[in-house]
Please model this.
Amino acid sequence: MGNSVLEIRNLKKGFDGNGVLDGISLAMGDGEVVVVVGPSGCGKSTLLRCVNGLETPDSGEILLDGAPIGGMDMVQVRRQIGMVFQSYDLFPHMDVLGNLSLGPVKALKRPKAQVEAEAVEALGRVGLADKLHALPRQLSGGQKQRVALVRAMLMQPRLLLLDEITAALDPEMVREVLNVVLDLARDGRTMLIVTHEMRFAEAVADRVLFLEHGRIVEEGQPAEFFHHPRTERARAFLDTFEFDTVKKT
Amino acid sequence: MRDLAVLFKGNNPARLLGGLGVTLKLSLVSVALSVALGLAVGVLMTLKNPVIRAVMRLWLETVRIVPQLVLLFLVYFGMAKAFNLQMSGETAAVIVFTFWGAGEMGDLVRGAITSIPRHQSDSGAALGLTRGQVWRFVLLPQAGRRLVPQAINLATRMIKTTSLVMLIGVVEVLKVGSQIIDAARYDAPQGAVWVYGAVFLLYFLACWPISLLARHLEKRWAC
Amino acid sequence: MDTGFMVKFLPMYLRAAGLTLRLGAAGIALSLVVGALCCMARHFRVPVLDRLAGIYIELARNTPLLVQLFFLYFGLPKVGIKLDAETCAVAGLTFLGGAYMAESLRSGLESVDRVQQESGLCVGLTPMQNLRYVILPQGLATAIPSIGANVIFLIKETSVFSAVALADLMYVAKDLIGMYYKTDEALLMLTLAYLTLLLPISIAFTLLERRLRHAGFGGAV
Model:
């Protein structure tokens, strides 16, 4: 437990009497990529939102680098944890450069020129160098999500949370966004990812968590989980992504 | 075509523009006060306290239902008698317009703030910005962009409504027009068409560019 | 508070309110007609009328009713067009109201989803039928709140009719204040009169809006 970047102990959270998270425990090491899959509405988003303090747990503990975040100033916590959402949440009234530099300049108080130089470089690495001064409404969904990823990364977070970031995208744009995430994984970023993209999950994950009704039903290596799931529930879930070919006579 | 000349005779043009100046001055002062007061009202309207919200709501509905001219009468005739003071038409006008403007501005402010999607707030927070920074860099700029075109629209309506103050004795551009026509009654009997036509045009020139600006800003800032 | 005074002059107020309602209703009805015509001209991009409608709307929306009335009542007679006070009032109100109604109807029509507009055609309706059964019902429903606001606005605007010598509510109030110095009573009755006229209309439109929303129109449907 000594080297965990993130540790969650018996996390419970409910809304209006409904238990959404029912005792989640998890430990993530440096550079590890954990993917959470499961049916809709089973608390995956809530889990991520509890980690960066957008929701407060009912009980249980969350530790970042060994320190419990419960007592800490959540603003400080969020400066170490990056999060990208499903719905494009770039700030519409700022151009791309403005979006990218707001966090580092205002929250981290870093010098503007330096931040902007880094932003230009990071934008180039995801292939959007020419969009530096574009407004969000001029970008496609895939481009917006790539910018959102760069924005989160420029804060140099210890941990990155990705909440179904391709779910609202047209299919042809999903790949360009996932490619960026794969690059981040290769760079050794610690990431907790919620996704519906099973093939991607298999490619990027070091570990897979299957969440249903607020509980971790199965946990394992991607190769095992996707091809030889141990539990009936996991099998049923994975089956929903398969189609039997319809033979024509 | 006869009597068109009366428009340009003597210092008539200067008087007409002077009248327009009175109109614009009244509107400007009222708008400024309305914006200042309206911002406070708007923020108050977003608070959870039901009593405050009810009072604000009542204020808004009152200014919406009661005609501005009635409000002008109430203040000019009513308050003057009640407090036994001689109030000028201009003072009454500023009071009424500010009362009206602040109520409407308050509602616009409330609408602008509540129209920003919840996620924007979360995005800002997720970046590690403090609550104050989220307000300053994310929420207020967006609220402002929704608000300004509508506020400009309100200003245009105020300029038009200042025409009413001639009925409580303020000498603004329409009243000046009447005076000119009266004076030229025998020399230029057909002057009325031209003079009132000119007043019509002056009001149009005062309002139209501003409403175009509002429309332009709305399009440019559409989020 | 001299209630005897108020009772004595109540009939005057009632007559004045009647005048306001009568002229107001006429103006509003004509405004809807003018507004609909302008809206159609612009929607179907009829060559010259489209432009004219556009200019008219800009002129009417950027000038006050009082100025328009003065022009009609004091100005036109000098070039031979003599209209009585009531006609001027209704004409002025229509001139002003037509522009606002045109804008309300336009935004209502535009709010009807493109897909909706084309679905009707795909089912085999003619453009005219499509307009009548698919687009107009939805467009009108969306326009109702805006139209309601216009109605209230126009009735409030009738308060300037006194400036062209019509015995409306403002005229009566000013008269009584001038003649009998019963300021409080006159103003109270004036305010009550307008509240009585406008509150029911306001509430009626709010209810109508709500009913239409439940029927599935005018919203995020």
Q: What stands out?
A: The mean pLDDT of chain B is 87.
